[in-house]
Design goal:
two-stranded antiparallel ribbon; Diguanylate cyclase; DinB/YfiT-like
């Protein structure tokens, strides 16, 4: 995968993360509180994993000991944190060369296991991981009477990739 494609996918991620959080914030006050909490836990898990992989790819410590945090941030907090994290990825990827994308990176998984992946594979994992959990979040949004955002690349490319 080339750098420009990765940047487009990261911009898509930034947009759909924001749309998902906006939808969560717009749910009726009568929506199931437990399911709303689960939505925020899922979105926070995406954020934590994004932060872990960002640190791993850059060779820096991340400080996380689990794949989620004990506290659950608000949707407003996640909007800021997730956008900043993805913006960091966009800056990072924009500066990479094709050789950088193929670089093998050794790191430790949160469970202590050793990992070794190419940078491009780490980026792809991060992108696909978030998509998986946003899908579950969309299902919960539907169960709470909301309409999940269209989490599809085609909508982003048509309407938001300017």
């Amino acid at each position: 995968m080339d750098r420009d494609t990765l940047v487009t996918l990261l911009k898509f991620k930034r947009w759909i993360d924001a749309e998902t959080l906006k939808t969560i914030k717009g749910l009726s006050d009568n929506a199931d509180a437990h399911k709303r909490h689960l939505m925020l836990r899922l979105m926070n898990h995406i954020y934590v994993t994004d932060m872990i992989f960002s640190a791993n790819i850059s060779g820096k410590p991340h400080g996380y000991t689990a794949l989620n945090t004990p506290e659950t941030p608000t949707a407003e907090e996640l909007e800021v944190k997730m956008a900043a994290c993805t913006n960091g990825y966009i800056e990072y990827v924009s500066a990479l060369s094709p050789a950088d994308l193929d670089e093998m990176i050794t790191f430790r998984f949160v469970d202590g296991g050793e990992g070794r992946m190419r940078a491009v594979d780490m980026l792809n994992h991060m992108l696909l991981h978030g998509s998986y959990h946003r899908g579950a979040t969309g299902w919960l949004i539907s169960e709470c009477g909301g309409v999940p955002p269209k989490d599809v690349l085609t909508v982003f490319l048509r309407d938001h990739n300017h």
